[in-house]
Amino acid sequence: MHDVLKNSLVGLTALSDEQWAFVLNHFKSKTTKRNELLLEKGNTCQNIYFVVKGCLRIFLAGDDGQESTRIFIFEGNFGTAFPSFVLRQPSAAAIQSIEASDVLYISYQHFQTLLETIPGWEKMYRIILEKGYIESILRIESLISMDAAERYNILLEKNPKLIQRLSAKIVADYLGISQETLSRLKSRKSPKVGKVRKSEK
Amino acid sequence: MHDVLKNSLVGLTALSDEQWAFVLNHFKSKTTKRNELLLEKGNTCQNIYFVVKGCLRIFLAGDDGQESTRIFIFEGNFGTAFPSFVLRQPSAAAIQSIEASDVLYISYQHFQTLLETIPGWEKMYRIILEKGYIESILRIESLISMDAAERYNILLEKNPKLIQRLSAKIVADYLGISQETLSRLKSRKSPKVGKVRKSEK
DNA sequence: ATCATTTATTGACTTTTGTCAATTTTATTA
DNA sequence: TAATAAAATTGACAAAAGTCAATAAATGAT
Questions:
Q1: Which residues of A touch B95 (CB under 8 A)?
Q2: In what order do the strands lie in the sheet with A47-53?
Q3: CB of B115 closer than 8 Å to CB of B67
Q4: What gap in Å lies between CA B183 and CA B151, rounded to an integer?
Q5: pLDDT digits 0-9 by tens, A109-145
Q6: H/E element, A37
Q7: Positive or negative CA dihedral for B127, A81, A64, A149?
Q8: Is strand C less than 7 A from the beta carbon of B179?
């Protein structure tokens, strides 16, 4: 599993073999079950996760049972309940493994150690932050300037894998619309394109 | 002007006097008029701006004349058309000086120079990125999980100065709602709280 | 200070989206 | 593979928000 992590980072920053060993040594591995919670709302997030296989989601849960997905973390990506992790505060969001997944994770303390002792790690983190920040800006733009149909069509165009792979319920949570509205958008605009049924695979 | 910049950064990172001089030397200053455009949509953003006095906004403009404000940059903060600046691509958004403002700015090339030559600068940038990313995550959450009235009330609670200082039109653009809806929210929920008229100051 | 311009408010109406409920389809697991 | 649970779809209706238009208020430039 650690090789996957190294391979995905090796282009971002230049580290010696000793530094790579030091870095990788601070990541623990974990296998999760489908729907397993990695962080409960209200707890302070202690880890950054790197998804080797599978998919996590960070989501908000309202009192009424309604959920809103803040972000997905697919294979080859880092993620955490970011505000909680950085500010060391109880998290408004929970982290859930949507699929049975293999993840690596590093604690806040160890992450700080890497930032302080490996100069290239600061750069790598910065580049990952830039990428995440850009994604979030594009998402804000779609939310403030488009209606549900436009947002869905853009997602379909830019990230069709996401729609195929996840349940419509969760896609709706992510788009900020109800599952019924999403269902109607699908039948209205593109009847043939939707989640690939497992029975068709 | 450069003192304001140094004072706002000095707590984030440890630099020698020589390093501070080197850093500040790479920032140019500029005075802007009200409503002046610092970047037009379609151009690649060349600078990061630091607002000493006044306020900038980064906004999208639709074909129909409708505008959506991505973010505001008030005194003591950095900002840019971030995706364009980082990815070196034409910007979807424009940058406008809402008020007559004093700004400092640094070019992409000079910014890279600072990242490469001043280790503490990488850390400073990372901390600013973390802050911006957290803000954007909270904004996404409000957009996907709250209706217009809730978003407005939260903004009123967390950032009343923003509502007082800016026109309702621009606040509506920022909230992702129409000006009419915002006007109705104001009269419905909190008749006495609104923008402070200049005539009342 | 006045005037022209921009911004804000309000009403009437339309469109979009949400909610509730019933049904069908798909997925999970014993 | 049957049984059960979960998810998706659809219809009917309600609520939220947008649009258009008219008017009022505030601003800023002379």
A1: none
A2: A28-32, A101-107, A47-53, A78-79
A3: no
A4: 14
A5: 999 999 999 989 999 999 999 999 999 999 999 999 9
A6: strand A37-39
A7: positive
A8: yes
| Chain C positions with a protein C-beta closer than 7 Å | 7-12, 16-21, 26-28
Condensed to tens digits (0 to 9), the pLDDT of residues B133-186 reads 999 999 999 999 999 999 999 999 999 999 999 999 999 999 999 999 999 999
Closest CA to A147 of B42, B169, B138, B178: B178
Question: What local confidence, expressed as pLDDT, does residue B78 receive?
Answer: 97
Q: Most B CBs within 10 Å: which of A58, A117, A122, A130, as the mutation test of the B interface?
A: A130
What residues 127-166 of chain A have any CB closer than 8 A to a CB of chain B? 129-130, 132-134, 136-141, 143-145
Confidence of residue A1 (pLDDT cuts 50, 70, 90): confident
| CA-closest candidate to residue B96, choices B29, B40, B27 | B40
Residue identified by tokens 């640094």 is B106
Who among B93, B122, B176 is closest to A143 (CB)?
Answer: B176
User: Contact at 8 Å (CB) between A102 and A50?
Assistant: no
Looking at chain B, which residue has its C-alpha nearest residue A132? B133
Q: Name the residue facing A86 among B66, B130, B138 (closest C-beta).
A: B130
> What CA–CA distance (Å, rounded) separates B177 from A161?
30
Mean pLDDT across the stretch B95-112? 96
Model pTM greater than 0.70?
Answer: yes
B5, B19, B79 from B25: Cα distances, Å: 12, 10, 19
Q: Stretch A143-152: mean pLDDT, rounded?
A: 96
Counted residue by residue, chain B has a size of 201
Burial environment of residue A4 by CB neighbours within 10 A (0 to 12, 13 to 18, 19 or more):
middle
Q: Which chain B residues have a beta carbon less than 8 Å from that of A141?
A: 60, 68, 70, 92-93
Residues of B in contact with A137 (CB under 8 A): 70-71, 82-83, 136
